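BUG: 3D viewer hangs when loading the predicted structure for this chain

Environment: internal workstation, default settings.
Expected: structure renders.
Actual: progress bar stalls at 90%.

Input used:
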Amino acid sequence: MPEEDLVEVKFILNDGSEIGPFSYSPSSTVGYLKEKILADWPKDSKVTPKAVNDIKIISGGKILENSKTVAQCQMPFDELQKGSITMHVVVQPAVAKTKAGKKIDEAERKSICSCSIL
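Structure tokens produced before the viewer hung:
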């Protein structure tokens, strides 16, 4: 595959550190990118994903779906820049399932934000 067909992608983690840039085929899926991010995740990071499903990739203000390809995630103006695409990475651990009938602790209820925008 010629090098000009590859897309250069850089990932910025929630602590400001970076992974990449790496070159990917436009047909690479977001799921594949998540696997690469998990493999290259900094070992000294405070927050570490345990599985690929814990990782969310954001590009252009949208959370990308695992089945989308890099080509589908490119913004039209990226073709003009000839640089790397920057995507943000957030770790969101899967929520543990609660038992049916289990009541929420009163302290947890009080910590829920109740902001009002006027």
